[in-house]
């Protein structure tokens, strides 16, 4: 085994990690994860059996099917947030409503754990917005011009009106002020 082979594996791992980071950044990843994690205890607890020695403790309720449906829908909504993030607001509102419905129907929302996770995931999904893409390159016109946009001098303004990048408005010579009856030039006494 050569020393170069470990570098290739490290490069592949870095490339996969960067690819996953890009994929995660383009969608409400944490919202989907919290929603799916909230759906699991809601669906699991009504069907779970706890064995304590010879004693079996079952959490079965008459609304066990409702808990299973709510949990499955929350897991589906979490996957929808990941893979079809266009409907993220609808999925977030639906997750919040299902989390609220799970309180009376599914053992207090999976003993409050599933309720809180689904509620947080729905809120994150409803409030998530895609980021603005960054401009990677300057326009060729800006790159060729040595003056920055703030330091540029407007074409119709005289050189005296530009002071450290801020323009000072001046009245142009020859403008006629109708209210005072004189033009913008100098007046001679006469």
Describe the secondary-structure layout.
Blueprint (H helix, E strand, L loop, with lengths): L2 H23 L3 H16 L4 E4 L2 E4 L5 H20 L4 H18 L1 H5 L1 H15 L12 H5 L17 E2 L2 E2 L8 E2 L4 E2 L7
Antiparallel strand pairs: 1-2, 3-4, 5-6
Helix pairs in contact: 2-3, 2-4, 2-6, 3-4, 4-6
Architecture overview:
- The protein is mostly helical and 190 residues long.
- The chain has a domain at 15-127.
- The chain is built from seven helices and six strands.
- The chain has helices at residues 3-25, 29-44, 64-83, 88-105, 107-111, 113-127, 140-144; strands at 49-52, 55-58, 162-163, 166-167, 176-177, 182-183.
- A two-stranded antiparallel ribbon has the order 1-2.
- α2 (29-44) runs parallel beside α4, α2 packs antiparallel against α6 (113-127) and α4 (88-105) packs antiparallel against α6 (113-127).
- The longest helix is centred in the N-terminal third of the chain and has 23 residues, at 3-25.
- It is elongated, with a radius of gyration of 33 Å.
- The model has no long low-confidence stretch (mean pLDDT 79).
């Amino acid at each position: 085994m050569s020393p170069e082979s470990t570098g290739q594996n490290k490069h592949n791992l870095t490339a996969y990690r960067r690819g996953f980071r890009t994929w995660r950044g383009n969608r409400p990843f944490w919202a989907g994860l919290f929603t799916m994690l909230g759906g699991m205890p809601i669906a699991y607890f009504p069907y779970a059996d706890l064995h304590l020695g010879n004693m079996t403790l079952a959490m079965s309720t008459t609304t066990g099917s409702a808990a299973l449906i709510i949990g499955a829908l929350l897991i589906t909504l979490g996957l929808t947030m990941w893979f079809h993030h266009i409907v993220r607001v609808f999925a977030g509102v639906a997750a919040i409503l299902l989390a609220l419905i799970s309180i009376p129907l599914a053992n207090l929302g999976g003993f409050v754990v599933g309720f809180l996770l689904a509620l947080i995931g729905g809120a994150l999904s409803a409030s998530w917005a895609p980021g603005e893409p960054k401009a990677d390159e300057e326009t060729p016109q800006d790159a060729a011009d040595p003056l920055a946009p703030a330091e540029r001098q407007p074409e119709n303004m005289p050189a005296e009106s530009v002071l450290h990048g801020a323009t000072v408005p001046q009245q142009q010579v020859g403008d006629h002020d109708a209210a005072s009856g004189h033009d913008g030039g100098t007046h001679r006494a006469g």
